[in-house]
Amino acid sequence: MNVQVENLEKNMAKLTVTVDAAELDKAITKAYNKQKNSISIPGFRKGKVPQHMVEKMYGAEIFYEDAANIIMQDTYPKAYDESGLDIVSQPKIDITQLEKGKEFIYTAEVAVKPEVKLGKYKGVSVTKVDTKVTATEVNNTIKAELERNARLVTKTGKAAKGDTTVIDFEGFVDGEAFEGGKGENYDLELGSGSFIPGFEDQLVGHKAGEDVEVEVTFPEDYQAKDLAGKAAVFKCHIHEVKGKDVPKLDEEYVSDHTEFETVEDYKASVKERLENNKKTEGRRAQEDEAIAKIVEDSEMEIPDAMLDYQVENMINDFANNMAQQGLSLQQYMQFTGMTMDAFRNQVRPDALSRTQSSLVLEAIAKAENIEASDAEVDAKLEEMSKQYGMELEQLKNLVGENEKESMKKDIAIEKAVELVMDNVKETAKKKTTKKADAEEGNSDSAESEDE
């Protein structure tokens, strides 16, 4: 195998991979062996037709696609390593020569991690964080916790917003059921906005045992062309309607649901937790603000392929999270009216921000010679073993060198963030108008009243 590297514009590169003709012949034979049991020719039993006979009847090209895939799966990882490039995208493959008896040649166009020209990263100004907690915030938090501890109890009356309906549903367009539009025993909280606009509203006012036809219209730019702009009917059967039985805040509740005995102690703990949360969220907000300013003051050219790769990773993560909630990505798109193109465009700014942030932090770590020690990796592994409930040695045996290198990179980035934050300058939030001053004064008054 021979690999040639050509640097392209905008941090792109092309790998030209040449594989010996003998290796192509071997791959074609592997492809034949993979397919032979499904090949039928009169006079031969299935699986017994000789390779040369198949190629004579159908042409050698019959095995080319599988053979090419076999070779590329084997050679691309090696070409990746041999290129010496820091590749940050999936390859765009183009086969330039594929013919029996000749060398197999293909190209892989890839994005290369861009160089970063760092701007100022020490002494960055960030907004000072206010960690004060009002009585109103405490009361609202407790109210929300009481709601979460509410029991769902079966209702005999009509469903209202906030109730949960257990439904079967199936979607139809022009009287025909469409793929991905069916669900059974689905818990749907009315007013949650989980489904396409208008869907949940049409279940309000109905009782358990009723069949309801929900009418919605798919957006004109809907991802499935056969559904775009069309009216749909979801035939729903309501198995059950459940309402919330919210507990009262008293000593009995506190004793049963918390580690405290009195309402006063419980409220004090909630206030302390909110203060800690504000500190944590404030620190995170300051980190985001500082890194955003460093990004703005730095220079880098991010190739589109690198950004596309990050977008797809984020969509895959989202799809996995949705699957854990019992919804496929396709169903989510249908119920929200979102198209994949619109979803990608929605995700893209966040993908760009993540990519830029990661690049500048890696550059800071490199500029400051920040590295992760083996001891720090071991400490991280010990933390993970406790999190997963595994023996430390068992986890170490499962973690390979590549994973350890990735952990070292993550630890170095964390240390780079610490360096940035150790050197920030806090500034008070600017009051830009008299109206803002007046609103702040009213807020202070309200806080005093709450307290």
Q: Please indicate the count of domains.
A: 3
Count of DSSP H/I helices:
13
Mean pLDDT: 89
Specify the CATH class of the largest domain: Mainly Alpha
Distance between the termini: 75 Å
Description:
The protein is α+β, with helices and mostly antiparallel strands and 451 residues long. The chain folds into three domains: 2-111, 2-Layer Sandwich (Alpha-Beta Plaits), CATH 3.30.70; 151-245, Chitinase A, domain 3 (Roll), CATH 3.10.50.40; 261-434, Trigger factor, C-terminal domain (Trigger factor, domain 2, Orthogonal Bundle). It has helices spanning 21-35, 51-58, 64-83, 135-148, 251-257, 263-297, 304-324, 329-336, 340-367, 374-388, 392-398, 401-422, 434-450, and strands at residues 2-7, 12-19, 92-97, 104-111, 125-127, 151-154, 164-173, 176-189, 211-217, 231-245, 425-427. The strands form three sheets. Strands 6, 7, 8, 9 and 10 form a five-stranded antiparallel β-sheet that branches. The chain has a four-stranded antiparallel β-sheet with strand order 1-2-4-3. It has a two-stranded parallel sheet with strand order 5-11. A hairpin with a 2-residue loop joins strand 7 and strand 8 (176-189). The relative contact order is 0.11.
List keywords for this structure.
451 residues; alpha+beta; Alpha-Beta Plaits; Chitinase A, domain 3; Trigger factor, domain 2; 3 domains; five-stranded antiparallel sheet; four-stranded antiparallel sheet; 11 strands; disordered C terminus
